[in-house]
Design goal:
- The protein is α+β, with helices and mostly antiparallel strands.
- It has four domains: 89 residues, no CATH class; 97 residues, Beta-Lactamase (2-Layer Sandwich); 78 residues, Orthogonal Bundle (Helix Hairpins); 154 residues, Histidine kinase-like ATPase, C-terminal domain (Heat Shock Protein 90), CATH 3.30.565.
- 52% of the residues lie in helices and 20% in strands.
- The strands form three sheets. The chain has a five-stranded antiparallel beta sheet, with helices on both faces. A five-stranded mixed beta sheet has the order 7-9-10-12-11. A two-stranded antiparallel sheet has the order 6-8.
- Strand 11 and strand 12 form a beta hairpin.
- The relative contact order is 0.06.
- Bound molecules: adenosine-5'-diphosphate.
- Adenosine-5'-diphosphate binds next to helix 9 and helix 12.
Protein backbone atom coordinates (compact mmCIF):
# COMPACT_ATOMS: atom_id res chain seq x y z
CA UNK A 1 0.00 0.00 0.00
CA UNK A 2 1.08 3.54 -0.85
CA UNK A 3 2.05 5.63 2.17
CA UNK A 4 -0.52 8.29 1.19
CA UNK A 5 -3.38 5.84 0.99
CA UNK A 6 -2.44 4.28 4.36
CA UNK A 7 -2.56 7.78 5.99
CA UNK A 8 -5.87 8.33 4.28
CA UNK A 9 -7.15 5.00 5.52
CA UNK A 10 -6.00 5.77 9.06
CA UNK A 11 -7.91 9.09 9.06
CA UNK A 12 -11.00 7.43 7.68
CA UNK A 13 -10.87 4.81 10.44
CA UNK A 14 -10.34 7.47 13.13
CA UNK A 15 -13.21 9.57 11.75
CA UNK A 16 -15.50 6.51 11.63
CA UNK A 17 -14.62 5.59 15.26
CA UNK A 18 -15.26 9.17 16.43
CA UNK A 19 -18.56 9.21 14.54
CA UNK A 20 -19.61 5.91 16.21
CA UNK A 21 -18.61 7.23 19.63
CA UNK A 22 -20.45 10.52 19.05
CA UNK A 23 -23.49 8.62 17.84
CA UNK A 24 -23.49 6.45 20.97
CA UNK A 25 -23.03 9.50 23.21
CA UNK A 26 -25.89 11.31 21.45
CA UNK A 27 -28.11 8.26 21.97
CA UNK A 28 -27.24 8.15 25.70
CA UNK A 29 -27.82 11.92 25.99
CA UNK A 30 -31.19 11.62 24.26
CA UNK A 31 -32.21 8.76 26.54
CA UNK A 32 -31.09 10.83 29.54
CA UNK A 33 -32.97 13.92 28.36
CA UNK A 34 -36.10 11.82 27.70
CA UNK A 35 -36.12 10.41 31.22
CA UNK A 36 -35.37 13.90 32.55
CA UNK A 37 -38.41 15.33 30.70
CA UNK A 38 -40.54 12.43 31.95
CA UNK A 39 -39.42 13.08 35.50
CA UNK A 40 -39.99 16.83 35.27
CA UNK A 41 -43.59 16.08 34.22
CA UNK A 42 -44.02 13.81 37.24
CA UNK A 43 -42.59 16.48 39.56
CA UNK A 44 -45.01 19.06 38.18
CA UNK A 45 -47.77 16.51 39.00
CA UNK A 46 -46.48 16.52 42.58
CA UNK A 47 -45.09 12.96 42.29
CA UNK A 48 -42.07 13.81 44.40
CA UNK A 49 -41.20 10.15 45.04
CA UNK A 50 -40.10 9.73 41.37
CA UNK A 51 -36.37 9.29 40.59
CA UNK A 52 -34.16 9.42 37.47
CA UNK A 53 -33.72 5.84 36.17
CA UNK A 54 -30.48 5.91 34.22
CA UNK A 55 -27.40 3.80 33.97
CA UNK A 56 -25.35 6.71 32.69
CA UNK A 57 -21.83 6.91 33.93
CA UNK A 58 -19.39 9.74 34.17
CA UNK A 59 -20.73 13.28 34.35
CA UNK A 60 -24.29 12.28 33.37
CA UNK A 61 -24.21 9.62 36.09
CA UNK A 62 -23.08 12.17 38.65
CA UNK A 63 -25.75 14.63 37.50
CA UNK A 64 -28.41 11.88 37.90
CA UNK A 65 -27.18 10.97 41.40
CA UNK A 66 -27.12 14.64 42.45
CA UNK A 67 -30.54 15.17 40.95
CA UNK A 68 -32.00 12.11 42.71
CA UNK A 69 -30.48 13.27 45.99
CA UNK A 70 -32.07 16.70 45.47
CA UNK A 71 -35.43 15.00 44.79
CA UNK A 72 -35.12 12.97 47.98
CA UNK A 73 -34.35 16.07 50.05
CA UNK A 74 -37.26 17.88 48.42
CA UNK A 75 -39.60 14.96 49.09
CA UNK A 76 -38.61 14.85 52.76
CA UNK A 77 -38.99 18.62 53.14
CA UNK A 78 -42.40 18.59 51.49
CA UNK A 79 -43.52 15.68 53.68
CA UNK A 80 -42.36 17.59 56.74
CA UNK A 81 -44.15 20.78 55.62
CA UNK A 82 -47.31 18.79 54.84
CA UNK A 83 -47.18 17.10 58.25
CA UNK A 84 -46.67 20.46 59.99
CA UNK A 85 -49.61 21.87 58.01
CA UNK A 86 -51.74 18.87 58.97
CA UNK A 87 -50.78 19.37 62.63
CA UNK A 88 -51.65 23.05 62.40
CA UNK A 89 -55.01 22.49 60.71
CA UNK A 90 -55.84 19.71 63.22
CA UNK A 91 -55.02 22.03 66.11
CA UNK A 92 -57.05 24.81 64.52
CA UNK A 93 -59.96 22.42 63.93
CA UNK A 94 -59.92 21.25 67.54
CA UNK A 95 -60.03 24.76 68.99
CA UNK A 96 -63.59 25.41 70.03
CA UNK A 97 -63.24 29.16 69.45
CA UNK A 98 -63.20 30.76 66.05
CA UNK A 99 -59.64 31.46 64.87
CA UNK A 100 -58.93 33.78 61.97
CA UNK A 101 -55.44 34.83 60.94
CA UNK A 102 -55.07 37.74 58.52
CA UNK A 103 -52.13 39.61 57.03
CA UNK A 104 -51.58 43.35 57.43
CA UNK A 105 -53.83 44.05 54.44
CA UNK A 106 -56.70 42.02 55.82
CA UNK A 107 -56.21 38.96 53.61
CA UNK A 108 -57.05 35.63 55.21
CA UNK A 109 -54.03 33.45 56.00
CA UNK A 110 -55.74 30.82 58.13
CA UNK A 111 -59.26 30.15 59.33
CA UNK A 112 -60.92 27.33 61.27
CA UNK A 113 -64.42 25.87 60.93
CA UNK A 114 -65.78 27.62 64.00
CA UNK A 115 -64.68 31.01 62.63
CA UNK A 116 -66.24 30.13 59.25
CA UNK A 117 -69.52 29.46 61.05
CA UNK A 118 -69.39 32.62 63.15
CA UNK A 119 -68.56 34.99 60.27
CA UNK A 120 -71.08 33.18 58.02
CA UNK A 121 -68.29 32.88 55.42
CA UNK A 122 -69.28 33.97 51.92
CA UNK A 123 -66.66 31.68 50.38
CA UNK A 124 -66.94 28.58 52.56
CA UNK A 125 -63.76 26.54 52.32
CA UNK A 126 -62.02 29.02 50.00
CA UNK A 127 -61.23 31.87 52.33
CA UNK A 128 -57.46 31.70 52.26
CA UNK A 129 -55.89 34.53 50.25
CA UNK A 130 -59.15 36.46 50.04
CA UNK A 131 -59.76 39.77 51.78
CA UNK A 132 -61.97 39.80 54.88
CA UNK A 133 -64.41 42.05 52.99
CA UNK A 134 -65.00 39.25 50.48
CA UNK A 135 -65.29 36.64 53.22
CA UNK A 136 -67.04 38.00 56.34
CA UNK A 137 -70.80 38.09 56.01
CA UNK A 138 -71.62 39.60 59.41
CA UNK A 139 -71.34 43.36 59.10
CA UNK A 140 -70.73 44.04 62.81
CA UNK A 141 -67.90 41.47 63.00
CA UNK A 142 -66.33 42.82 59.79
CA UNK A 143 -66.39 46.39 61.12
CA UNK A 144 -64.90 45.30 64.44
CA UNK A 145 -62.03 43.41 62.77
CA UNK A 146 -61.39 46.08 60.11
CA UNK A 147 -60.68 48.63 62.83
CA UNK A 148 -57.60 46.68 63.90
CA UNK A 149 -56.18 45.42 60.59
CA UNK A 150 -52.41 45.96 60.74
CA UNK A 151 -52.58 47.20 64.33
CA UNK A 152 -49.67 46.55 66.69
CA UNK A 153 -51.96 46.69 69.72
CA UNK A 154 -53.84 43.80 71.30
CA UNK A 155 -57.56 44.40 71.58
CA UNK A 156 -60.31 42.69 73.50
CA UNK A 157 -63.97 43.58 73.00
CA UNK A 158 -67.41 42.11 73.47
CA UNK A 159 -69.72 42.47 70.51
CA UNK A 160 -73.48 42.05 70.79
CA UNK A 161 -75.31 41.32 67.55
CA UNK A 162 -78.91 42.19 66.77
CA UNK A 163 -80.04 38.62 67.52
CA UNK A 164 -78.47 39.02 71.02
CA UNK A 165 -75.57 36.69 70.31
CA UNK A 166 -72.54 37.98 72.19
CA UNK A 167 -69.02 37.39 70.85
CA UNK A 168 -65.79 38.06 72.65
CA UNK A 169 -63.34 39.20 69.98
CA UNK A 170 -59.64 39.23 70.84
CA UNK A 171 -57.19 40.55 68.29
CA UNK A 172 -53.42 40.16 68.72
CA UNK A 173 -50.66 41.19 66.34
CA UNK A 174 -48.56 38.41 64.80
CA UNK A 175 -44.86 39.33 64.81
CA UNK A 176 -42.31 38.09 62.30
CA UNK A 177 -40.20 35.44 64.04
CA UNK A 178 -37.57 36.97 66.36
CA UNK A 179 -38.71 40.45 65.47
CA UNK A 180 -40.29 42.83 67.94
CA UNK A 181 -41.32 45.42 65.40
CA UNK A 182 -42.22 43.79 62.13
CA UNK A 183 -45.78 42.48 62.23
CA UNK A 184 -47.07 40.19 59.52
CA UNK A 185 -50.73 40.28 60.47
CA UNK A 186 -53.19 39.64 63.27
CA UNK A 187 -54.68 36.60 64.95
CA UNK A 188 -58.33 36.97 65.82
CA UNK A 189 -59.96 34.80 68.44
CA UNK A 190 -63.77 34.85 68.37
CA UNK A 191 -65.63 33.21 71.23
CA UNK A 192 -69.40 32.86 71.58
CA UNK A 193 -70.11 34.01 75.14
CA UNK A 194 -73.88 34.40 74.81
CA UNK A 195 -74.59 31.73 77.45
CA UNK A 196 -71.99 33.10 79.87
CA UNK A 197 -73.38 36.63 79.55
CA UNK A 198 -76.93 35.31 79.95
CA UNK A 199 -75.97 33.41 83.12
CA UNK A 200 -74.11 36.42 84.47
CA UNK A 201 -77.15 38.64 83.84
CA UNK A 202 -79.38 36.04 85.47
CA UNK A 203 -77.09 35.97 88.48
CA UNK A 204 -77.15 39.77 88.72
CA UNK A 205 -80.97 39.82 88.38
CA UNK A 206 -81.26 37.10 90.98
CA UNK A 207 -79.08 38.98 93.48
CA UNK A 208 -81.08 42.18 92.84
CA UNK A 209 -84.39 40.30 93.21
CA UNK A 210 -83.31 38.46 96.36
CA UNK A 211 -82.16 41.71 97.94
CA UNK A 212 -85.44 43.36 97.03
CA UNK A 213 -87.56 40.43 98.23
CA UNK A 214 -85.70 40.26 101.55
CA UNK A 215 -85.76 44.01 102.03
CA UNK A 216 -89.56 44.31 101.87
CA UNK A 217 -90.43 42.12 104.89
CA UNK A 218 -87.35 43.36 106.77
CA UNK A 219 -88.38 47.00 106.34
CA UNK A 220 -91.85 46.14 107.54
CA UNK A 221 -90.55 44.23 110.59
CA UNK A 222 -88.14 47.05 111.37
CA UNK A 223 -90.91 49.68 111.15
CA UNK A 224 -93.29 47.82 113.46
CA UNK A 225 -90.58 46.98 116.00
CA UNK A 226 -89.64 50.68 116.10
CA UNK A 227 -93.28 51.71 116.56
CA UNK A 228 -93.65 49.21 119.39
CA UNK A 229 -90.50 50.37 121.20
CA UNK A 230 -91.32 54.04 120.82
CA UNK A 231 -94.92 53.69 121.97
CA UNK A 232 -94.84 51.71 125.17
CA UNK A 233 -98.44 52.66 126.00
CA UNK A 234 -100.03 51.24 122.86
CA UNK A 235 -103.35 49.52 123.51
CA UNK A 236 -103.30 45.74 123.54
CA UNK A 237 -105.30 45.36 120.33
CA UNK A 238 -102.95 47.53 118.30
CA UNK A 239 -99.95 45.88 119.89
CA UNK A 240 -101.24 42.41 119.00
CA UNK A 241 -102.02 43.50 115.44
CA UNK A 242 -98.49 44.82 115.01
CA UNK A 243 -97.02 41.67 116.51
CA UNK A 244 -99.13 39.56 114.16
CA UNK A 245 -97.76 41.53 111.19
CA UNK A 246 -94.20 41.04 112.47
CA UNK A 247 -94.87 37.29 112.78
CA UNK A 248 -96.34 37.14 109.25
CA UNK A 249 -93.43 39.04 107.75
CA UNK A 250 -90.82 36.97 109.57
CA UNK A 251 -92.57 33.79 108.38
CA UNK A 252 -92.31 35.17 104.83
CA UNK A 253 -88.63 35.87 105.36
CA UNK A 254 -88.14 32.32 106.60
CA UNK A 255 -89.98 30.86 103.58
CA UNK A 256 -87.97 33.03 101.22
CA UNK A 257 -84.66 32.01 102.74
CA UNK A 258 -85.70 28.34 102.74
CA UNK A 259 -86.71 28.54 99.06
CA UNK A 260 -83.48 30.35 98.07
CA UNK A 261 -81.40 27.72 99.88
CA UNK A 262 -83.42 24.91 98.28
CA UNK A 263 -82.99 26.40 94.81
CA UNK A 264 -79.26 26.76 95.28
CA UNK A 265 -78.93 23.22 96.65
CA UNK A 266 -80.84 21.81 93.65
CA UNK A 267 -78.62 23.81 91.31
CA UNK A 268 -75.47 22.57 92.99
CA UNK A 269 -76.78 18.99 93.54
CA UNK A 270 -74.49 18.75 96.57
CA UNK A 271 -73.77 15.27 97.92
CA UNK A 272 -76.98 13.82 96.57
CA UNK A 273 -77.58 10.16 95.92
CA UNK A 274 -80.57 8.89 94.04
CA UNK A 275 -83.05 6.56 95.68
CA UNK A 276 -85.97 4.49 94.43
CA UNK A 277 -89.06 6.35 95.47
CA UNK A 278 -92.65 5.05 95.52
CA UNK A 279 -94.45 7.89 93.80
CA UNK A 280 -97.84 7.13 95.32
CA UNK A 281 -96.54 7.09 98.93
CA UNK A 282 -94.91 10.49 98.53
CA UNK A 283 -98.02 11.86 96.88
CA UNK A 284 -100.22 10.59 99.73
CA UNK A 285 -98.00 12.28 102.31
CA UNK A 286 -98.30 15.62 100.48
CA UNK A 287 -102.01 15.09 99.91
CA UNK A 288 -102.64 14.64 103.64
CA UNK A 289 -100.72 17.84 104.36
CA UNK A 290 -102.48 20.02 101.80
CA UNK A 291 -105.93 18.52 102.13
CA UNK A 292 -106.29 20.29 105.50
CA UNK A 293 -105.80 23.68 103.89
CA UNK A 294 -107.97 22.68 100.92
CA UNK A 295 -110.82 21.61 103.20
CA UNK A 296 -110.61 24.98 104.97
CA UNK A 297 -111.08 26.65 101.58
CA UNK A 298 -113.80 24.20 100.65
CA UNK A 299 -111.69 22.87 97.77
CA UNK A 300 -112.03 19.24 96.85
CA UNK A 301 -108.86 17.34 95.93
CA UNK A 302 -109.35 14.11 94.01
CA UNK A 303 -106.77 11.80 92.46
CA UNK A 304 -106.43 8.89 90.05
CA UNK A 305 -103.25 6.84 90.24
CA UNK A 306 -102.95 4.31 87.42
CA UNK A 307 -100.13 2.48 89.18
CA UNK A 308 -99.68 2.82 92.93
CA UNK A 309 -96.52 0.74 92.81
CA UNK A 310 -94.69 2.85 90.28
CA UNK A 311 -91.16 3.77 91.29
CA UNK A 312 -89.04 6.75 90.26
CA UNK A 313 -85.38 7.20 90.85
CA UNK A 314 -84.89 10.61 92.40
CA UNK A 315 -82.82 12.59 94.83
CA UNK A 316 -83.95 12.90 98.47
CA UNK A 317 -87.06 15.01 98.88
CA UNK A 318 -87.27 16.19 95.28
CA UNK A 319 -90.50 14.36 94.45
CA UNK A 320 -92.14 15.54 97.66
CA UNK A 321 -91.14 19.12 96.89
CA UNK A 322 -92.47 18.75 93.35
CA UNK A 323 -95.92 17.55 94.51
CA UNK A 324 -95.95 20.12 97.31
CA UNK A 325 -95.28 23.10 95.04
CA UNK A 326 -97.73 22.12 92.32
CA UNK A 327 -100.62 20.96 94.49
CA UNK A 328 -100.13 23.88 96.89
CA UNK A 329 -100.27 26.32 93.95
CA UNK A 330 -103.40 24.62 92.59
CA UNK A 331 -105.10 25.13 95.97
CA UNK A 332 -103.66 28.64 96.45
CA UNK A 333 -104.84 29.90 93.07
CA UNK A 334 -108.28 28.28 93.13
CA UNK A 335 -111.17 30.15 94.76
CA UNK A 336 -113.26 28.42 97.48
CA UNK A 337 -115.53 25.71 96.17
CA UNK A 338 -113.11 24.77 93.41
CA UNK A 339 -111.73 21.42 92.31
CA UNK A 340 -108.19 20.09 92.16
CA UNK A 341 -107.44 16.77 90.44
CA UNK A 342 -104.20 14.80 90.31
CA UNK A 343 -103.79 12.15 87.60
CA UNK A 344 -100.95 9.71 87.19
CA UNK A 345 -100.52 7.42 84.20
CA UNK A 346 -97.83 5.98 81.94
CA UNK A 347 -97.46 7.08 78.33
CA UNK A 348 -94.72 5.94 75.89
CA UNK A 349 -92.86 4.39 78.83
CA UNK A 350 -92.78 7.70 80.70
CA UNK A 351 -94.53 8.63 83.94
CA UNK A 352 -97.02 11.43 83.51
CA UNK A 353 -98.37 13.45 86.43
CA UNK A 354 -101.10 16.03 85.88
CA UNK A 355 -102.18 18.61 88.43
CA UNK A 356 -105.43 20.20 87.28
CA UNK A 357 -107.41 23.00 88.88
CA UNK A 358 -110.39 25.13 87.92
CA UNK A 359 -108.96 28.23 89.54
CA UNK A 360 -107.96 31.69 88.37
CA UNK A 361 -105.87 30.45 85.44
CA UNK A 362 -102.87 32.19 83.91
CA UNK A 363 -103.09 34.90 81.22
CA UNK A 364 -101.56 33.81 77.89
CA UNK A 365 -98.81 36.45 77.98
CA UNK A 366 -97.57 35.20 81.38
CA UNK A 367 -97.50 31.46 80.71
CA UNK A 368 -93.91 31.39 79.40
CA UNK A 369 -92.62 33.45 82.31
CA UNK A 370 -94.09 31.72 85.35
CA UNK A 371 -91.10 29.36 85.70
CA UNK A 372 -88.72 32.30 86.07
CA UNK A 373 -87.48 33.09 89.54
CA UNK A 374 -89.65 35.61 91.39
CA UNK A 375 -92.09 35.92 88.50
CA UNK A 376 -95.65 36.29 89.70
CA UNK A 377 -98.69 37.10 87.61
CA UNK A 378 -100.18 39.10 90.43
CA UNK A 379 -97.60 40.04 93.06
CA UNK A 380 -100.13 41.14 95.67
CA UNK A 381 -102.22 37.97 95.31
CA UNK A 382 -99.14 35.74 95.51
CA UNK A 383 -97.96 37.58 98.62
CA UNK A 384 -101.37 37.37 100.26
CA UNK A 385 -101.41 33.57 99.83
CA UNK A 386 -97.86 33.26 101.16
CA UNK A 387 -96.06 32.85 97.81
CA UNK A 388 -92.37 33.54 97.33
CA UNK A 389 -92.32 33.44 93.52
CA UNK A 390 -89.76 30.64 93.64
CA UNK A 391 -91.99 27.54 93.77
CA UNK A 392 -92.20 26.93 90.03
CA UNK A 393 -88.52 27.79 89.45
CA UNK A 394 -87.65 25.15 92.05
CA UNK A 395 -90.09 22.66 90.47
CA UNK A 396 -88.62 23.21 86.99
CA UNK A 397 -85.10 22.67 88.33
CA UNK A 398 -86.20 19.47 90.06
CA UNK A 399 -87.87 18.14 86.89
CA UNK A 400 -84.79 19.01 84.80
CA UNK A 401 -82.46 17.34 87.26
CA UNK A 402 -84.61 14.19 86.98
CA UNK A 403 -84.33 14.45 83.17
CA UNK A 404 -88.05 15.10 82.86
CA UNK A 405 -90.21 17.85 81.41
CA UNK A 406 -92.84 20.22 82.74
CA UNK A 407 -95.39 22.20 80.81
CA UNK A 408 -98.58 24.08 81.52
CA UNK A 409 -101.88 24.52 79.77
CA UNK A 410 -104.02 27.27 81.19
CA UNK A 411 -106.96 29.50 80.43
CA UNK A 412 -107.38 32.75 82.26
CA UNK A 413 -110.20 32.53 84.84
CA UNK A 414 -110.96 28.93 83.86
CA UNK A 415 -108.12 26.93 85.36
CA UNK A 416 -104.68 25.40 84.84
CA UNK A 417 -103.15 22.03 84.10
CA UNK A 418 -99.51 21.38 84.97
CA UNK A 419 -98.09 18.28 83.26
CA UNK A 420 -94.90 16.67 84.55
CA UNK A 421 -93.27 13.86 82.56
CA UNK A 422 -90.56 11.78 84.22
CA UNK A 423 -88.52 8.90 82.88
CA UNK A 424 -89.32 5.61 84.59
CA UNK A 425 -85.73 4.86 85.42
CA UNK A 426 -83.13 7.60 85.57
CA UNK A 427 -79.77 6.63 84.15
P1 LIG B 1 -95.65 31.71 94.14
O1 LIG B 1 -94.87 31.48 95.35
O2 LIG B 1 -95.94 33.14 93.87
O3 LIG B 1 -96.84 30.83 94.04
P2 LIG B 1 -94.61 30.11 91.98
O4 LIG B 1 -93.28 30.11 91.38
O5 LIG B 1 -95.09 28.85 92.62
O6 LIG B 1 -94.63 31.31 92.97
O7 LIG B 1 -95.63 30.51 90.86
C1 LIG B 1 -95.37 31.65 90.06
C2 LIG B 1 -96.66 32.32 89.63
O8 LIG B 1 -97.36 31.48 88.72
C3 LIG B 1 -97.63 32.55 90.76
O9 LIG B 1 -97.37 33.76 91.42
C4 LIG B 1 -98.95 32.59 90.01
O10 LIG B 1 -99.15 33.88 89.47
C5 LIG B 1 -98.75 31.62 88.86
N1 LIG B 1 -99.31 30.28 89.15
C6 LIG B 1 -98.65 29.18 89.58
N2 LIG B 1 -99.48 28.13 89.69
C7 LIG B 1 -100.70 28.56 89.33
C8 LIG B 1 -101.99 27.96 89.23
N3 LIG B 1 -102.18 26.68 89.53
N4 LIG B 1 -103.01 28.74 88.82
C9 LIG B 1 -102.84 30.03 88.52
N5 LIG B 1 -101.65 30.66 88.58
C10 LIG B 1 -100.59 29.95 88.99
Amino acid sequence: MEPISSIYFFFMLAAASIAILLFRYTLTLRRFLKSFIKLSKKVSNKEFHSRLQTSARGELGELSRNFNFMMETMENTIEEVEYKHLQLTSVLKSISHGILVIDIYGNVILINDEARKIIKSKTRGNEEGKNIKQVINVEAILKEIERYVGSKESENNNLTLEDETVYKIKIDPVYLQNSKNAIIGSIINIEDITEIVKLENMRKDFVANVSHELKTPLTSINGFVETLTMNENLDVDKRNRFLAIIKKESDRLKRLIEDILLLSSIENKNNLVTENILLYDVFKEVYEMINYIAKDKNINISYNFEDEKIVVEAYGDYIKQLFLNLIDNAVKYTPPGGEVTINQYTKYDEIVIEIIDNGIGIPKEDIDKIFQRFYRVDKARSRSVGGTGLGLAITKHIVNSLKGRICVESEFQKGSKFIVTLPKKIS
